[in-house]
């Protein structure tokens, strides 16, 4: 109890509270702007931490981290332009809600689910941190390959009833992600002697093109259904009623659990957890027929999952000194600069610091909720802008977002090409989300497969000798076969004609 009181006193100083508020607001803004994201946000504020003491510096970084993960969902809802890769799943249900005039309600769903997921991950971080860190050490490349394959089953959930087209789109995403350097040998592949392609095809430009550019092109061509009139648009933040939440508490808890588990595994991240949670929600929801048309179940699942990653991702970072992704790698560097040595001894010798981080995360998530609730009217008022002006603004913002990732004009051309391809794909009823899923998961799947084959001396059947991998393979097979089994059961239950 003394440690908790001491930690509360440390984070209640004016400088620490200011760092939390400022970091969270900056993080939300960074998340809203397409093409920036958590890594760039943390990199932007990193120099400010050099002259700060430990707790305010950590508070600032945590605020930017959590705020940026949440902020990407706002533009995903309002403009169908995910600000971050992990918000791509949010656009699948959030934007249809905005199109029918319920942007305020969609923001209410995602803000509350994000806060719950973040707070849930804090609980996991404190109670199960060391245990999760020890369990994550059991994951070899073979287990990561099995997890990547399981995550690919998300394609079935976002394929709008046409699994074949979804698999084709997912294969296209996998192919796009292989362009550039071979991760093992370093050889160039699929570059066609193009210097620009030697660095690969960026995920952010593709997301900007597939979602933002294609949506705007479709509006210009009037191939998509028009949105509601400006007078029908509701701006602001609207909290869903308790009756609606009560029906989705299981979905909220399931998404938080998925995010906490996936976040504790090094090398996965919020985008993977969001798509896994969305796929699971679509499978288990009683309202699965509404998915794709603005179903809150999908919003609750993916937003609670991607924000639950924020706390649990710190487990391997702090307990093992292993950064799980580029975001936690930047945070790890900031901690080292502050004189904090992450590792097994941190939880044993510096428990006061752990409690301070724990309390900072709680306050950050509360501030994040208030930022979303109070600032939502500013974000959703963009829907009242006349459509021709809005299209122009979105195209400008999206172009800047695509360019700003690497400061490379080639990325703008990639985004434009992805936008044109998105128009063609959507016109022929191909889902575009599987392309993003394929690009997100390809590095994990390819690298872990090749490393696993090295460990088993080229024997793929050796993968099934690993218990955790075998369980994941079995779950993947059941997930893929269940729709066929369900169809067979439905056929057997049909009354026979005599």
Written overview of the protein:
It is built from 23 helices and two strands. Helix 2 packs parallel to helix 4, helix 3 packs antiparallel against helix 4 and helix 13 packs antiparallel against helix 14. A two-stranded antiparallel ribbon has the order 1-2. It is mostly helical and 498 residues long. A hairpin with a 6-residue loop joins strand 1 and strand 2. The protein is globular and about 65 Å long. It has one domain. InterPro entries: DUF112_TM.
Beta content comes to under 5%
Q: In percent, how helical is the residue content?
A: over 70%
Structural class: mainly alpha
| Oligomer type | single chain
Rg over CA atoms, rounded to whole Å, is: 22 Å
Largest sheet: 2 strands, antiparallel
Lateral strand order in the biggest sheet: 1-2
Shape: globular
Unreliable stretches: 227-232
The arrangement of helices and strands along the chain is: HHHHHHHHHHEEHHHHHHHHHHHHH
Number of domains: 1
Count every helix, treating DSSP H or I runs of 4 or more residues as helices.
23
Strand segment tally: 2
First-to-last CA distance: 75 Å
Mean pLDDT across all residues, rounded? 79
Protein name: Putative tricarboxylic transport membrane protein
Organism: Martelella radicis
Keywords: Membrane, Transmembrane, Transmembrane helix
Domain DUF112: 17-437
């Amino acid at each position: 109890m003394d440690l908790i009181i001491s930690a509360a006193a440390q984070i209640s100083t004016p400088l620490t509270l200011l760092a939390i508020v400022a970091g969270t607001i900056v993080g939300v803004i960074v998340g809203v702007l397409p093409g920036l994201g958590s890594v760039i946000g943390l990199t932007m504020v990193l120099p400010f931490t050099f002259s700060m003491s430990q707790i305010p510096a950590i508070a600032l970084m945590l605020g930017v981290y959590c705020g940026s993960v949440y902020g990407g969902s706002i533009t995903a809802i309002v403009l169908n332009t995910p600000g971050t890769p992990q918000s791509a799943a949010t656009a699948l249900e959030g934007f249809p809600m905005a199109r029918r005039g319920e942007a305020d309600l969609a923001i209410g769903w995602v803000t509350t689910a994000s806060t719950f997921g973040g707070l849930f991950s804090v609980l996991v971080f404190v109670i199960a941190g060391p245990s999760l860190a020890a369990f994550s050490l059991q994951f070899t490349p073979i287990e990561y390959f099995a997890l990547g394959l399981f995550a690919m089953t998300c394609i079935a959930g976002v394929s709008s009833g046409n699994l074949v087209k979804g698999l084709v789109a997912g294969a296209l995403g996998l192919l796009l992600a292989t362009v550039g350097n071979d991760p093992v040998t370093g050889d160039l592949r699929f570059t066609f002697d193009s210097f620009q392609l030697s660095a690969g095809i960026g995920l952010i430009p593709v997301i900007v093109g597939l979602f933002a550019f294609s949506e705007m092109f479709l509006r210009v061509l009037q191939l998509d259904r028009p949105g509601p009139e400006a007078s029908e648009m509701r701006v602001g933040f609207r909290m869903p009623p308790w009756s609606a939440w009560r029906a989705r508490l299981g979905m909220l808890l399931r998404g938080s659990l998925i995010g906490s588990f996936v976040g504790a595994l090094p090398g996965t991240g919020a985008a993977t957890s969001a798509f896994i949670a969305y796929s699971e929600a679509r499978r288990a929801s009683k309202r699965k027929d509404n998915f794709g048309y603005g179903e809150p179940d999908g919003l609750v699942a993916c937003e609670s999952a991607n924000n639950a990653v924020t706390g649990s991702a710190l487990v391997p970072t702090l307990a093992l000194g292993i950064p799980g992704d580029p975001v936690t790698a930047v945070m790890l560097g900031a901690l080292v600069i502050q004189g904090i040595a992450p590792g097994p001894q941190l939880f044993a010798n510096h428990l006061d610091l752990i409690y301070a981080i724990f309390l900072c995360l709680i306050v950050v998530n509360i501030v994040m909720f208030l930022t979303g609730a109070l600032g939502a009217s500013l974000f959703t008022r963009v829907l009242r802008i006349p459509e021709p002006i809005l299209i122009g603004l979105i195209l400008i913002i999206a172009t800047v977002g695509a360019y700003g990732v690497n400061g490379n004009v080639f990325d703008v051309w990639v985004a434009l090409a992805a936008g044109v391809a998105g128009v063609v794909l959507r016109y022929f009823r191909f889902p575009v989300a599987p392309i993003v899923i394929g690009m997100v998961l390809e590095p994990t799947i390819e690298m872990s497969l090749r490393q696993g084959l090295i460990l088993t001396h080229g024997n793929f059947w050796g993968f099934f000798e690993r218990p955790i991998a075998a369980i994941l393979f079995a779950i993947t097979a059941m997930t893929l076969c269940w729709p066929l089994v369900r169809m067979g059961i439905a056929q057997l239950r049909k009354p026979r004609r005599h």
